[in-house]
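Comment thread on ticket #2218

A.B. wrote:
> Attaching the input chain for the structure job we discussed in standup.
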Amino acid sequence: MPLLIAIPTTAGTGSETTLACVIVDSETRHKYVINDFPLIPRYAVLDPKVTLSLPPFITATTGMDALTHAVEAYIGNSTTVATKKEALMAVSLIFQNLETAYVDGSNIEARRNMLKASYYAGCAFTKSYVGYVHAVAHSLGGEYNVPHGLANAILLPFVLEAYGENIHKKLAKLAIAAGLADKNTPAEDAAKSFIEAIKNMKKKFRIGDTIPAIKEEDIPKLAHYADKEANPLYPVPVLMDANELEKFYYLLLEDHE
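C.D. wrote:
> Ran it. Output below, let me know if you need it in another format.
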């Protein structure tokens, strides 16, 4: 391939370092994920000045996208010493800087740190992969054009809660990196504080818990797409089939209660 230089204009996708790209089939509205080493850019230019004009909501949702990358890479079963370190650095930077970048978009230091966080999270998930948050989010983006970062942000706490105690120890480590717990905090308590912190971030950033575009009759098809994408490629901590994945779509319905 020709020389590829990537200059991210949001602090979220991590595309400047990943081997992944996504193509939407215009007829079926299905998102196809393509992974290959030639897709990794040779150079990444992290210039915070190009992100200064990002509106607050896009700042928030792309930042939550980066958080999802770091979390899913860390809790999966395909981690390395390096990807764990990268994910922890990303989580730490996001919890320290995302709210500042959201409130004060002209804060160059917060913008710079969010670009670093997105980059580290991209490094982590391009080697350790993601999980069901991404699989479900991709199906929603393909079918209804739901922005990927927004879908990830809405889904993240739901999926983490569904994984249950299987990820408590790993979430506890993330909670420590986020400054929400210390090494003496019981793993279950630390894990719950981490999930609760994500929910609080959503409230601060005015990110809801539902996606109005979802049609109930589409759910089996969407769950099939998510299942096909995730299984068996994604090294998720808890395996779920298409029927089990349907519950996440029902949670997003406006009248699910």
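A.B. wrote:
> Thanks. Noting for the ticket: The chain has a mean pLDDT of 95.
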